[in-house]
Amino acid sequence: MADAQTMLRVTGLTVELDRRRESAPLVTDVSFTIRHGEMVGMVGESGSGKSLTASAVAGMLPRGVRLTGGAVEIGGDASGPATGRAAPRHGVAMVFQNPMTSLNPSMRVGDQVAEAIRLRRPGTSRREARREAVELLDRVEITRPAERARQYPFEFSGGMRQRVMIAIAVAGEPSVLVADEPTTALDVTVQRGVMDLLDRLRRDLGLAVLLVSHDLALVGERCDRLLVMYAGELVESGATADVLRRPAHPYVRALKQCTPEHALAAGSLRPLPGRVPQAGEVRSGCRFAPRCALRTKECDREHPVLEVRAAGRLVRCHHADRRGSEG
């Protein structure tokens, strides 16, 4: 049973390609918690498993993959062990990267928000649902909400469409909100507005927010704690400021050195060589070893475990204490 402040507890989450004859792990034994009113960032390169982890938490895995292990607790209620293609979880809402792929182009915006309200409370009349939909559009800071509720998604800008998706998400009164790259397709000023909205909603509603992003600057500014994924597993976690200021895993240090902010400070950009291994390419030793400057025979031979290196800090590395130069 989760404690009173823990809204999301994920334990041993494992996702694999849905193959009959052989397994191909995509996400392996991922565990973490998010507390009431907390925003936790999950970062990593494309192919690291962060979006699959988020989708598994929400019970919205795509076709072709399945849960093979682990449990998810929402506010202390377990919905695991999780196996197969689970249905969307009660108490969890998800905001995706591209709202145009989630919104119905032939349906008025207000009706789409009202539909989410009636799904939450089946006895609600259409009139009442529409009234509440206008209130929600106003809450997510859409101007002239009554007028805009009668319009279609193509009449909205990208930022406004994302606000509609957030309104639909909170219409279900979730305790956990999963936001998968919610600002990637938006320009910088619109991005800040959407993130300000998510910040306000998580404070006002006490939401536990999992923010999936590739942007270290964004999570560094917005998130209380940070989860770093590589090749389908967690490699480092802890307080965001601590992880970004003094990364213990060489992968996190390499990610930091790839950022424009670091390049401006250091006078040069240090790209990370190689690529994330794909499904079926996972090695027996450390998954990051082929790209790591600290690689030793131990790294090739033994798979490192995720272990405590400091208070609230978890690291998966044989040489986590050898910090090296951070540039």
Written account of the structure:
- The chain is α/β, with parallel strands linked by helices and 327 residues long.
- The chain has a domain at 101-172.
- The protein has 11 helices and 12 strands.
- It has helices spanning 50-58, 109-120, 126-139, 145-148, 158-171, 188-205, 216-222, 240-245, 250-257, 260-266, 297-301; strands at residues 6-17, 25-35, 39-43, 65-74, 77-78, 92-95, 176-180, 208-212, 225-230, 233-239, 307-310, 313-315.
- The strands form 2 sheets. It has an 8-stranded mixed sheet, with helices on both faces. The chain has a 4-stranded antiparallel sheet with strand order 2-1-4-5.
- A hairpin with a 7-residue loop joins strand 1 and strand 2 (25-35).
- Helix 2 (109-120) packs parallel to helix 5 and helix 3 crosses helix 5.
- The longest helix is centred in the middle third of the chain and has 18 residues, at 188-205.
- It starts with 5 loop residues before the first strand and ends in a 12-residue tail after the last strand.
